[in-house]
Amino acid sequence: MTVVLTPYWSNGVQKLRAMLQRKHTLSFSRRASNFHRTLGTLAPPKLPKGLTPTVLDDETHYARCLAQLRSKDKPLEKYIYLSQLKEHDHHMFYKLCLHNMPEITPLIYTPTVGDACIQYSHIYRKPEGLYLSYKDKGNLGKIIRNWPRLNDARISVVTDGSRILGLGDLGINGMPIAIGKLSLYVAGAGIRPDSTVPIVLDLGTNNQAFLDDPLYLGLRQKRISDEEMNAFMDEFMHEMSTAFPKLLVQFEDFSTDHAFSYLERFRNKYPVFNDDIQGTGAVVLSGFLNAAKLSSAASGRPLSSHRILFLGSGSAGVGVAMQLMSFFKLQGLSEEEARDRISLVDSQGLIYNARGPMAEHKKFFSRRDYAGPPLTNLIDIIEHVKPTALLGLSTIKSAFNQQVIEAMAELNPRPIIFPLSNPVRLSECEFHEAVTWSKGQVIFASGSPFPVQEYQGRTYYPGQGNNMYIFPGLGLAAILSRASTVTDIMVEASSLGLADSLTPEERELDMIYPRVERIRDISNHIACAVIRAAQKAGVDRNQDLRRMNDAQLSDFVKSRMWIP
Ligand SMILES: NC(=O)c1ccc[n+]([C@@H]2O[C@H](COP(=O)([O-])OP(=O)(O)OC[C@H]3O[C@@H](n4cnc5c(N)ncnc54)[C@H](O)[C@@H]3O)[C@@H](O)[C@H]2O)c1
Ligand SMILES: O=C(O)C[C@H](O)C(=O)O
Ligand SMILES: [Mg+2]
C-alpha cells in the first residue's frame, strides 16, 4: 500500500486522522504500534501532542455533525453552521444533505436562504464565490480568470440580486441564492463540487436600507442604467465563455424585464438557461400534468377543458404560462385554443387588451375576449374566468384567502391550487388552510415546503412545485451531453421526465411530485430524457452518448454522479 503522508500533514492532523479512519479502525495516538504495522514499512510520524484519543470515524462524526446542527434553535444559525461545515468538510456537508433532504433542503435553500440573503452582509465570514462589480467593467476577463478551478468549472449560477425570491432587490446579498442552487446541483444530481461557480454581479442596488447600512458589502450606488447593464452583460458572457469553455450558465433571480431580455440575448449564443422562467415552467408543467389527471378524474371533464388562472405575471408567472401551453397542445389543442385556456392577473387585475399599454412579456396572454370594466378583485376574476386551477406567483401573502379557496372548491370537485411564491412567508396560502377550506379536496403544490397535514383522519401530502426538482437534472444533462444550447424541447423533456418519475406508491397517495429523498434517481431520469432531447435537436457536442441504449445511458449518468 502506498501512503503519501506529506500533504496530509501539511493539511492538518484532522485530515490524516480522517484518512486513516477511512482505511483502518485504530486509535491513533494510543496504538502507534498497530499504526506502524498497518502501514507496513513506514515509520510512525511524530504526532503533535494534544489530540483527542479517539479517532474520528465517519459514522460517529456524521452523528456528531447532525447533533450539532439540530442543537441550534434558529434556521439562520443552522444555515451558518452548514455553510461553515461545507467550507471545512464538504464531504460531510453533502452526506448530511443526501441523508436528510427534507430536513436540510429548507435550510440551505428556500425558505432559510431568503433570510441568509437579507442578512448576508451581516453574517458574512469569507468569500464563497465570484463577486464581479460594475467597477470591474473592462477587466472582467482578468478577474474571472482568478477563479482557482478554471478547468474544472462546468456550471455557474449567476444572479444580479435584483429580485431575490419574492424579497425584491437585495444587491450583492443575492450571493447565497447562487450558492444554495449549486449545493442542490451537487446534492441532487451529483455535480462535482469543484465544478460549480457561484457568481453575483454587483451592479448597484435600489435598496436604500442596504445603501445606508455600514456593513453592506456591495457597491454603494443605485443600479446602473439598462444601457450600461447590456454592455456589462455582453462583456461578462463573452469573458465567461472564453475562460470557461465547458460552462453552462444558469441565470437566477434577475428582475423580470432583464430575466426575459438576457435569456433572449444569449440563449442562441451560449449554453444558458433562466431558472425562473424555464426551470419554474418545467416544474409546474410537470406537477400540473399529474394534478390535472386527478382533478379530471373527480370532475369527469376532459383534460383539454382545464382553465388556468395566474395571480402574478412576472418572469415566473409568464414563464410558467408559456410552458403550460404544452399541456394543452399535448391534449390536441391549437396554439390559439391553448392560449385561451390561460388568464393572467397582475397588480392592476385581469390582463386584457382593452386595458391599455402593457409590458411586452404580458401581451401574449392578454385577453382579447374581454373589454372591461377592469376586474381587480380576485373573487370577481374567478367568477369571470371559472378556472379549474389557480396558480400564485405574485409574492402576495394570503392572497388565496378562505373566500378564494371556497370559490375554487365550489367550481371544482378537486380544485388545483398552487401558491408558488417564495419564501414561505410570501406564499399565497398555507397548506393547512387550503386543505381545511377546500374540505380536503385541494390538489396542492407550493414553492416552499409545508409540513404534511392530517385532516379528518386522513394524511395529506403537499407537493413542492419548486424548480429545484428540474435544474439539477437539466444541468447534468447539458454538461454530460456538452449541449451547445439549452433548447425548449430539452426543457420540456425535463418536465415530462419529472412527471413520469413518480412511483406507484407516490401516485397511490395522490402525490403530484416525487419525494425529495429520491432526488438522485429523479435527476438521473430527467437527465436521460434531456440528453435524448439534446440528441434529437443535434445540440449535443458529446455524441458518444448516442450509441448507448436507455439502460446504458442511465448507468452512465449514474456513474458520473459524485458521491460524498
Ligand atoms: N416555485 C418556484 O419554483 C418559483 C420559481 C420562480 C419564482 N418563484 C416566485 O414567484 C414570485 C414572483 O417572481 P417573479 O420573478 O415573477 O417576480 P415579479 O416581481 O416580476 O412578479 C410578480 C408579479 O406579481 C404581480 N403582483 C404584485 N402584486 C400583486 C397583487 N396585489 N395582485 C396581483 N398581482 C400582483 C406583479 O404585477 C407581477 O406581475 C416570487 O415570490 C418568486 O420567489 C417561485
Ligand atoms: O429559489 C427558489 O426557491 C425558487 C425560485 O427560483 C425563486 O426564485 O423563487
Ligand atoms: Mg429563482
TrEMBL record:
Residues 86-267 form the Malic enzyme N-terminal domain. Its cofactor is Mg(2+); Mn(2+). PROSITE patterns: MALIC_ENZYMES (PS00331). A divalent metal cation binds at E252, D253, D276. The keyword Metal-binding applies. It comes from the Eukaryota. Residues 277-535 form the Malic enzyme NAD-binding domain. Keywords: Metal-binding, Oxidoreductase. This is Malic enzyme. It comes from Heliocybe sulcata.
